[in-house]
Amino acid sequence: MTQVAPSGFELDAARLEHMRTRAAGELAVINDMEREGTIGRYAIGGAVAATRYVEPIQTYDLDVFVMLPASSSGLLSIAQIYNYLKARGYEPQAEFMMIEGWAVQFLPVYNALTEEALEQAIDVDFGTTPTRVFSAEHLAAIMLETGRAKDHARLVQFFEFGVLNRAVLEELVSRYHLEEKWRNFKTRFLSEKE
Amino acid sequence: MMTSKYPDITDLLEAKARRRRELAALTWEEKVAIVRQMQFLLPKGVWGTKPILPPTVKTQNRQK
Lengths: 194, 64
Known about the structure:
The complex is a heterodimer.
Chain A: E1 2-4, E2 10-12, H1 13-35, E3 42-45, H2 46-53, E4 61-66, H3 79-87, E5 91-93, E6 96-99, E7 102-108, H4 112-119, E8 122-126, E9 129-133, H5 136-146, H6 149-160, H7 166-175, H8 179-189
Parallel strand pairs in A: 4-7
Antiparallel strand pairs in A: 1-2, 3-4, 5-6, 6-7, 8-9
Helix pairs in contact in A: 4-5, 5-6, 5-7
Chain B: H1 10-24, H2 28-41, H3 55-63
């Protein structure tokens, strides 16, 4: 059976199910890592998380933000993630790990904003597999902070589809000192003046 | 009366906007499946090995 997605892609129902199943399998592997203590709390960020709120966004990897448990030396290391996965037959490719056919990038939280985004990530189900994603407002604040052209383009989509609680976003903007970037974004992309 | 030499594409733009809204309204699982589908349609040059293709794709390739 073939169904035509609204995008115009012809999606074979079996292929669609296959892709869902593989993605769920990938998340199950990451859930195992968390349960077994290889990683601390994790949540999905980046384009795949943004896709939860807007239309599908082309991306090649899955960004997984993690809290790394301290090693015996007290240092945080991402090597333990690679060792765990390699022992289970998954291979690194460039900066990614290939899990169930998808490139996964593990990113330790790298500042207070991403740490809060991880702490306050939303529990969701991908089919029957539990996982977490960043809130729309945290994603928006991270996009503002990062400030690449593609971040601005995605952020415009968030406004276009009306998925943001603006008061929550502006509170994040204030707490993480993103006022200037927020002003510039509003002027350039939302045609708003102070 | 002067007429434009260019066609009116209002309908096309409206259809695109409608399709985007429909896509955004899909479930997250459906949208992630589409994202993965896009990887197969538009493979990135940096892949050392291609993502594992679903069986239906392999079958189609074999028939060519």
